[in-house]
Structure formats: structure tokens, C-alpha cells
Design goal:
With 414 residues, this protein is an alpha/beta fold. The protein folds into two domains: 8-73 and 320-413, Aspartate Aminotransferase, domain 1 (Alpha-Beta Complex), CATH 3.90.1150.10; 76-311, Aspartate Aminotransferase, domain 2. Helix content is 37%, strand content 13%. It has a seven-stranded mixed β-sheet with strand order 4-10-9-8-7-5-6, sandwiched between helices. A four-stranded mixed β-sheet has the order 1-2-3-13. The protein has a two-stranded antiparallel ribbon with strand order 11-12. The longest helix is centred in the last third of the chain and has 23 residues, at 314-336. The two termini are 17 Å apart.
């Protein structure tokens, strides 16, 4: 039995921050999304594939900032490129710096659907402008959606403070269910503006799903048939599953796509990219503006990240490491005889527990992630993880063994 971690400073800081910030910390980072009392609440530093909390506990980190860290924390070559931009030129101006053109040309080179691009800051920025562009281009209203697309009114799951009229034209469908999408399109024929989907399925606390044969191709055909815009939300899959996104990996080209997270290894940047004809509505008919969208620090970081990913074949290495890790964890899960499921290999590893009528899965989930964090492996009970380039073979082997030991601790509950 692994010992409970010392988290005194995290807990003291959390008590204080609740008097300063509503809820203490925001959204998915709140303690109830982990195992309360077992996980740290504040980090102090990170390096490579590891992070250290304010109490000095060091973990192998598989959340990777919820996705941005594709290479590793504190990458000297990357950070130095940004520092040099700040020292020699600055990064926040009233007008755009020339580095933007260089970045967009690189995106055109890599991403199949990218004929034009708009640079923004967050994934929610990118998905929301994608929907605005689709509605402006088609002159239609209805949006079929699948996946998490951010916190804005049209798509957020927690709807406090949001009038129904702001999301009632957004209709959800299930991943890998083409019939459901077609039913939505038929019911709203003549008024479908867009189909937006994460090309790799990562819904809430459910197992990660890969597209079934013909699924993405089927969405392409439905978008064409009902004359709506097909949008791939590649905020998580972009610059991780493939340098050109899941659209390049699976050979299906959407009309628009959103990128972010791993695009700049932690620096704040995202992009809406797509076909020239559709993107062109931003020039005259769609308003898009922000004080910080043109900032060049994230643009320099994105270019350097892409350079490093390509130069050192980093995504191939990540996939190889992730594939071995997935095979090893699948074997450990099978041998354990515990009702558990591994999904998301090779890029987005996740261990879940199938729902049952008696609620045993909740007990198994809580105990498993308690045991795992006590072994200094940082994963999340309600969100898949990530593999980054700096995760070493030793890190991954240690984690496989920690998963094995943690599953063994569940046997008395079964």
C-alpha cells in the first residue's frame, strides 16, 4: 500500500485562494475533478516530462497541461527563441509583426485544408469563430456538434447564466454514429450551417475512441449533401496525432479546422484554418478582433515547436513510445481481471471503469487514481492523458508497473 502524499502547502494555499478566486481554481482543475485530499492543487515547476508541486512532490506528468506540452516542459531551445523575440523586437504592438505571415505559410504547407488562417489565442476562440464563419458563409443556422469545443455560449455543457436561445440551435450527436448525424441533417434540411466534430473522439469521462472505417468520410459526404461546412476540431489532435492533424492521418479534408494546444508547446496560441472561399467571409462579413491575437510570442513559439517536431521526428517517437505503452498497459489491465478499460493509445492514454448498476465503477475509479497519484503518476480520473516527447522509456516502464500495482489494490473491492 502506497503512502498518502504530504500536501500541506497545497491545502493551505487552496484555503487561501478560495477567499480570492471564485471556486479557488477554475473548471476542470478544481479538486473534485481529481480525488480530493489525494491530489495536489498547486504546481511549482516542470521540466521534461515531470512536474513538481508546491510541497516538493515530483510526478511523471501525463496531463501535459491538458494537452499543450507535446515536447516537454521548459524546452531551452524553444524558450530561447521566444526570449530573443521579446529582447530584440518585442511582441505586443498596435499592428501585426511579419512573423505571422511566416507562420501561416507553414500551416498552409502542413495542414491539408489550410488555404488561409486566422491566428487567435485559445481553442474556444478558434471553435467559436469557426461556427460564426460557417453561419455567415452558408446563411444558415443549425449546427451539429460532437465533442468538447470550449466554454462559449453555443457549446458549453454547464449553462448557468446562458439564455437558451444562444445554444438551442446547436444539436449534439454521438461519436461514430453516422445515422444520428444524418437524422439531424434531414430534420434541418435547408438550415444546416455546420457539422463540427473532434476527429478523435474524447467525450468527457468516456473511453477515447478512434474513428470507425468510413466515419469521417461519411461526415464529409453528409456535409456535401446538405451543403453545410464540415469543421474538424483538432485542438487536441493537431500537432500530436500527425504534423498535419488527424485530417492528414486519416485522409479526410474538412472545410475548416481548429488547432491549438500542442501547436506551441504551452505558449498561448490557436488558429482557425480552412478553405479560402469560406475563410474569406472574415474579411468583410464576420468580425474578429482581439488586443492579444497578433502577439508574436506565441507565433514564434509555434514556428519553433513545428521546427523541432519535424527536425527530430518527434511525433513519430511519441507514437512509438505511446504504442508500446498502450500494449503494455492493455496487457496489465487484462491480467489484472479488474473491470477496467484502456483507451486512447498511442496519443491520449486513459484508464476507465465500465459503468455498472451498483456503482462499483465509481469506487474502483476513486481507489485506482488514489493509488496511482500516491505512486507519483499524474493522470486524471475524468480526462484522458497525453504522451510527450520527453517521457523516457524509464518513465513509461515505471508507469506501467504503477498501474499494475494500483489495479492490484482494487481486488478487495471486486
Amino acid at each position: 500500500m502506497a503512502e498518502k502524499l504530504k500536501l500541506d502547502k497545497s491545502m493551505e494555499m487552496y484555503a487561501e485562494v478560495k477567499t480570492l478566486v471564485p471556486g479557488g481554481v477554475a473548471g476542470i482543475r478544481r479538486p473534485y475533478n481529481f480525488v480530493e485530499g489525494e491530489y495536489p492543487i498547486f504546481f511549482e515547476s516542470g521540466k521534461g516530462g515531470r512536474i513538481t508541486d508546491v510541497d516538493g512532490n515530483e510526478y511523471i506528468d501525463y496531463l501535459c497541461g491538458y494537452g499543450p506540452i507535446i515536447i516537454g516542459y521548459r524546452e531551452e531551445e524553444l524558450d530561447e527563441a521566444v526570449y530573443e523575440q521579446i529582447r530584440s523586437k518585442g511582441f505586443c504592438f498596435s499592428l501585426t509583426q511579419s512573423i505571422q505571415n511566416t507562420l501561416v505559410k507553414k500551416l498552409q504547407e502542413l495542414i491539408p485544408c489550410c488555404e488561409m488562417a486566422s491566428i487567435v489565442k485559445t481553442g474556444s476562440d478558434a471553435t467559436t469563430i469557426a461556427i460564426r464563419v460557417a453561419r455567415a458563409y452558408t446563411g444558415k443556422l443549425k449546427v451539429a456538434r460532437c465533442g468538447y469545443h470550449g466554454w462559449h455560449d453555443w457549446c458549453v455543457e454547464v449553462r448557468g447564466g446562458i439564455p437558451k436561445k444562444l445554444y438551442e440551435d446547436t444539436i449534439e450527436f454521438h461519436y461514430n454514429d453516422l445515422d444520428m448525424v444524418e437524422d439531424i441533417c434531414k430534420a434541418n434540411a435547408g438550415n444546416m450551417a455546420a457539422i463540427i466534430v473532434t476527429p478523435v473522439g474524447h467525450i468527457g469521462a468516456d473511453p477515447v475512441q478512434m474513428p470507425k472505417p468510413g466515419y469521417l468520410e461519411g461526415l464529409r459526404k453528409l456535409a456535401d449533401k446538405y451543403e453545410c461546412v464540415l469543421i474538424f476540431d483538432e485542438i487536441r489532435s493537431g500537432f500530436r496525432c500527425h504534423i498535419g492533424g488527424a485530417q492528414a492521418l486519416y485522409g479526410v479534408t474538412p472545410d475548416l479546422a481548429t488547432f491549438g494546444k500542442a501547436m506551441a508547446n504551452g505558449y498561448a496560441i490557436a488558429a482557425l484554418v480552412g478553405k479560402r472561399e469560406i475563410m474569406s467571409v472574415i474579411a468583410d462579413n464576420v468580425f474578429l478582433s482581439s488586443t492579444f491575437f497578433p502577439n508574436s510570442d506565441g507565433q514564434v513559439a509555434a514556428l519553433k515547436t513545428i521546427e523541432m517536431l519535424q527536425r527530430d521526428n518527434m511525433l513519430e517517437v511519441v507514437a512509438q513510445k505511446g504504442e508500446k505503452f498502450a500494449n503494455d498497459v492493455n496487457r496489465v489491465v487484462e491480467e489484472s481481471t479488474i473491470p477496467a478499460e484502456f483507451s486512447g493509445g498511442p496519443w491520449m492514454p486513459y484508464i476507465t471503469f465500465p459503468r455498472d448498476d451498483n456503482g462499483l465503477y465509481k469506487k474502483l475509479r476513486t481507489e485506482f487514481y488514489t493509488q496511482l497519484i500516491r505512486r507519483k503518476v499524474f493522470l486524471q480520473p475524468y480526462h484522458h492523458g497525453y504522451i510527450c516527447y520527453r517521457h523516457t522509456d524509464e518513465d513509461l516502464a515505471y508507469t506501467v508497473n504503477a498501474i499494475k500495482e494500483s489495479l492490484a489494490e482494487l481486488k478487495p473491492l471486486c
